[in-house]
Amino acid sequence: MGGFIKAVAACIMLASFSASASAPDCSDLIQSSEQAWLELNYDASDQALAQAQRKCPDLSEVYWRQARNIFDRVESLPREKRPGKQQSIELFNRIIALGEKCIQVNPNDGLCHHWKAVGIGRRGSTKGVLNSLGDLRELEATMQKAESLKPTYRSVNGSANAMGDIYDAHGMLYRVVPDWYILKVLFGARGDMVKSVELQRKAVALEPASIGYNKELGVSLVCYGRKKNDPAPVAEGRKYLEKVETLPVLKHSDKVDKDHARILLKNEDMACGYSRDAQQVQSQEEFEKIQKK
Question: Using alpha carbons only, what angle is made at residue 229 by residues 178 and 203, rounded to the nearest 5 degrees?
Fold first, then answer.
């Protein structure tokens, strides 16, 4: 009996060794893609990812990294140089599709859910938030799922931080979507400025030198203070927007964010509807017009 058990154990070990030996290793390609991304060379990053996808099609980070490259190309452009509305929507649909493929490969990778949410959110702001309320329930749920999985990725220079990026995106959602109760009734979610500020504070706590996080916390605080007619949050928000000017540029979108921080300091009334791609309309009158169509 003892000999039989030893033989079975040996077979299991051999099978395990064979499986691991035959499994493709794409770590070098992923690292090459990451290094190219850090150097802002998205073409080279995509080339490494294309090779990785052919070799390791069941590796989830291949897909969220492809989604990130698409997003970063668009976000690095000032508003006047971005693709047209329809082309932008097609790009964000591609990000959503990559997020969904990523989830299919590994539903426990929080960055798969995050990048799907980013695609949904940016498609919505491209169409206009009030024109995209039908996506609101799915968008909030996808963001919450990403947050619950607590991914740990961080780039070596801090220009990307999985949980920071999730908090940041979630905080933006709660700011640009109006906080009207009717939205919760009709679409399952609504804006919430208290949550927005809380989430942006969490992002800044993770990466205090992030231009994007500091800008978004400043915007949320200014918006919150103006809604409450309270000068204290507005003053605090302005300090974060002013801080942006002192921070080092790590990626192309940081240059855009520095420009936008200066604009927002001169135009506080833009804060609540601010989005890097387009200013969002938040009026009840516009909402009622859209609902009647």
Answer: 60
The pTM for the full model equals 0.90
Q: Amino acid identity of 227?
A: K
CB 88 within 8 Å of CB 50: no
CATH (residue range 30-292): 1.25.40.10
How many angstroms separate the CA atoms of 141 and 143, rounded?
5
Mean pLDDT for each consecutive 10-residue tract of the chain (293 residues)?
49 43 82 97 97 97 98 87 91 98 98 98 95 96 98 97 98 96 95 98 98 98 98 98 97 94 97 92 84 77
CB 234 within 8 A of CB 221: yes
d(CA 230, CA 216): 19
The 10 Å CB-count burial string (b at 16+, else e) for 40-58 is eebeebbebbebbbeebee
